[in-house]
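FIELD: query
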Amino acid sequence: MSDPTPYDPHIMRMLQEEGMHGESSISEMNVIPFIDICLVLLIIVLISSAFAFQLFVFENPGSTQFNVVEANNKDGSSRLIKLYIHDEKTITLNGANVTRDSLVPQLQAAWSSGNYAAVDFRAPESLKTQEIIHVMERIRMNVDGVKMSLAILEKGAH
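FIELD: result
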């Protein structure tokens, strides 16, 4: 009889059968390295988001200065231009109705007279914020040196 070699088909079959009946082969993917990488990325995102406010610095130069304006003259007359936006179509300037197109020229004429110290800008709470910003931007861009105070009024207050 010859010595059995590892290449003998009978021995190979026995080895294969032992492997099948013994421990099962691992056919699943190992996800632990994937989870480790995800946790590291999560930590990086959390740390970077904590410092994100330093990356996006918003500085409004107009807000660093606060001036108190005297609202009345010595004789008691008001030094404020009263601008009230009632709704998207109705605007009053010192009690007189004005249109959107005539608002800036009339406000500029009143401001340049030198009799006024600031614009008292009022709007109802129900008015859209973008409408208020649009009017304020038109005034800021077209009336030189204007100072405004903004008051958002609750419903029913005038």
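FIELD: remark
The radius of gyration is 39 Å.
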